[in-house]
Amino acid sequence: MLVLIILTAVLFFGLFYILPRKPFKSLLWNLIIIGIWSVTWLLLFQYELILTGSTTGTYGSDATYYYEAMHAGYFSNNPSQAISAYYNQLYIWYGIIILKTSPFFSIIWVKLGNIVLLLYVVSIMYLMLYRAVLMSIKNQATCWSEIRPPG
After folding, report:
1. String of b and e for 46-72 (b: at least 16 CB within 10 Å)?
2. Which of 2, 19, 100, 133 is deepest in the core (most CB within 10 A)?
3. Per-residue model confidence as pLDDT tens digits over 109-142
């Protein structure tokens, strides 16, 4: 949980510090809305899984596979050896770190961590697209100023 709080704080405070201009305030509001939307759906899906009797709190084969890998690494004295047979070990390590810093062992913390990753990806995509559009506008303005005579 501590990792999730730190990652979220770094994202939002970093964006507030780096992006003081008005166009980026919409990015922050979009991230807040996406975060609230994602957490709401996460809670609804988790409630549905509880009602349907899911023992692991996961909804499919991939999620169960990663949950079992994180479970093995979490309760092992040597997590590297415990997860060596699994694929995508970086994600499994991410989940283990989140679970180790959480108040209790539950897959919901990893899902919240996935939402934080989603917010990072959305903010990076927004910034890249904004920069590309800004560069395109500057290039078009430069081209038009070269074509038209000053006057």
Report:
1. beebeeeeeeebbeeeebbebbebbbb
2. 19
3. 998 888 888 888 888 888 788 777 777 777 766 6
Tokens of 122: 């959305």
Angle between helical axes of 89-100 and 2-18 (0-180°, round to 10): 100
Q: pLDDT band at residue 39, thresholds of 50, 70 and 90? A: confident
Residue 5, both tokens: 């709080």
pTM: 0.70
Does residue 144 register a pLDDT over 60? Answer: no
CB 136 within 8 A of CB 147: no
**Token pair listed for 76:** 């092992």
Q: Please give the Cα distance from 78 to 30 (Å, whole number).
A: 41
Q: In the chain, how many H helices and how many E strands?
A: 6, 0
Q: Which two tokens stand for residue 96?
A: 């283990």
Residue burial 137-151, b: 16+ Cβ < 10 Å; e: rest: eeeeeeeeeeeeeee
Q: Is the dihedral of CA 19, 25, 27, 29 positive or negative?
A: positive
